[in-house]
Design a protein that fits this description.
This protein is α+β, with helices and mostly antiparallel strands and 110 residues long. The protein has a domain of 43 residues: 2-Layer Sandwich (Alpha-Beta Plaits). It is built from three helices and five strands; from the N terminus they run E-H-E-E-H-E-H-E.
């Protein structure tokens, strides 16, 4: 099994759910040891929707994932580990909360 250096949770949103997504991400950072990335109102990397990244460590995984599951409402959250294999992390190792979205895997062309 590959070594896991941490995790990313990507909260997906659109113009109607922007404020909800921002509030969710800010509440997560207030509650946990999480680094919140930019609230991207454009497509970034492999992500098919606007998103905000939350980065966190393995020690907080269970608490953060359970909290997101209970507080995300209709927002889609895409989670993945950081093993050094970006393609596998975003596909085989991915965890989805809500509807699965097709990622732009060309971002990982080898």
């Amino acid at each position: 099994m590959p070594s896991i250096q941490g995790y990313h949770a990507h909260v997906y949103f659109d113009v109607q759910t922007l404020d909800q997504a921002r509030a969710l991400c800010e509440a997560a950072t207030a509650r946990f040891d999480i680094q919140m990335g930019r609230v991207h109102q454009r497509l970034v990397g492999p992500h098919p929707e606007w998103s905000c990244q939350l980065a966190f460590s393995h020690k907080d995984f269970a608490d953060i994932v359970l909290w997101l599951a209970l507080n995300r409402k209709e927002l889609v959250v895409f989670l993945h580990p950081l093993t050094g294999d970006d393609l596998a992390d975003h596909t085989a190792h991915a965890i989805w909360m809500g509807a699965v979205r097709p990622l732009n895997l060309e971002a990982f062309a080898r």
